[in-house]
Amino acid sequence: MKRITGTHAISTTLGEPVRAFVPHPLAPTNPELAPEAYADLNHQAELALARLSGVSGLVPSVDWLLYSAIRKEALLTSQIEGTQATLTDLFDEEAGFVVSNTDDVEEVTNYLRAFRLVQDNLRDPNGLPISVHLLCEAHRVLLDGARGAGKQPGELRRSQNWIGGTRPGNAAFVPPPADWVGDLLGALEQFIHDETGTLPPLVRIALAHAQFETIHPFLDGNGRIGRLLIAALLEHWGLLEEPLMYLSGYLKQHQAEYYRRLSIIRTEGDWESWVAFFLEGVATAASDAERSIISVASLISADRRRLLEDPKAGPASYRLFELLPMMPRFTIERVRQRLETTFPTATAAVKVLENLGIVTEMTGQKKNRSYSYQPYIELLSR
């Protein structure tokens, strides 16, 4: 029996009647999700997340891992929407270097700010819980700037939107009419905070993300806020204490399938294949992140050993080395500021790392030189 996951509402948009899809509240019914459809995949995904949490102890500072993981997620979730920025662009912007694609980089840094806003609220006893209010605040930050100005930042849409096509009449998908959005999001919020259900947390996250994308409550930024919701729920339900996984890498790699699986929920009532795809994605992304942490830990450990064995190394070069994982591109002036030292001391510290081949000078100039911890950046960019 085909499961019905929603109804259609007729709305008039741009002078033509349009069939907009209105999803039923979660969780799926008639029939309910069968545990055998997800139990094994859910177990594998939970194990992969537990291994990822465990491996973070391999490095002296979890902040190093978070620095790169959060930036990779910000970058990849933005690339799904067509942003062209790279990880190097992001590091360059943070180092104060000139970047050519400033609008693209701004979109990625806005996502980082939106992510931090959500995380800070969830970790503050007086902060906002996961809610429509919090997602609107995140949306306001995400669309702050040139590209988002006309897209009602922080506000639920007041007009009909559509996905694909040039107008609602020839669109691939038409989300619910604007006057349904508030109630639908309210029901989604209720589902997230309802503790009486029996579905495992990862399955609930899969359902919540799909439902959010179906409601498509904003004029722009729905994909990024919907994927931010995944990260927030992973922490909220204790599946990953720190955001070390970048699921958007998997979703970007399988982008056509990602959209197809969301689509067949609406057209065929097939929640099972979406949930399976999502759980496979979590298991793969967690394993990828685990391997990345092991590679980064090995690189940093080997470079540190070489530095400690160098007779010319001193306290300033040791301190600089410990900063590199969170400052992979830099100038001597930035080193001077971070070490709170003199320019000659900063220059000497950089020289030690350069002579060991740990960092590379990038300009070839005598003045205004800039440096890169290139092996580390290449490892993260794989």
TrEMBL record:
UniProt lineage: Bacteria, Pseudomonadati, Pseudomonadota, Gammaproteobacteria, Chromatiales
Domain (Fido): residue spans on this chain? 130-280
The UniProt keywords, alphabetically, are: ATP-binding, Nucleotide-binding, Nucleotidyltransferase, Transferase
Does this entry carry the keyword Glycosyltransferase? no
Q: Which reaction does it catalyse?
A: L-threonyl-[protein] + ATP = 3-O-(5'-adenylyl)-L-threonyl-[protein] + diphosphate; L-tyrosyl-[protein] + ATP = O-(5'-adenylyl)-L-tyrosyl-[protein] + diphosphate
GO MF annotations for this entry? AMPylase activity; ATP binding; magnesium ion binding; protein homodimerization activity
Q: Which domain of life is it from?
A: Bacteria
Look up the coiled coil feature and give its residue ranges: none
Quaternary state and interactors: Homodimer.
What is the protein name stated in its UniProt record? Protein adenylyltransferase
Active-site residues (renumbered): 216
Q: Which Pfam families match?
A: Fic, Fic_N
Known InterPro entries for this protein? Answer: Fic/DOC_N (IPR025758), Fido (IPR003812), Fido-like_dom_sf (IPR036597), Fido_containing (IPR040198), SoFic-like (IPR026287)
Q: Does the keyword Metal-binding apply?
A: no
Instruction: Write out the residues that bind ATP.
Output: 81, 216, 220-227, 258-259
Q: What does this protein do?
A: Adenylyltransferase that mediates the addition of adenosine 5'-monophosphate (AMP) to specific residues of target proteins.
Q: What SUPFAM superfamilies does this protein's entry cite?
A: Fic-like
Signal peptide residue numbers:
none
- The protein's Enzyme Commission number: 2.7.7.108
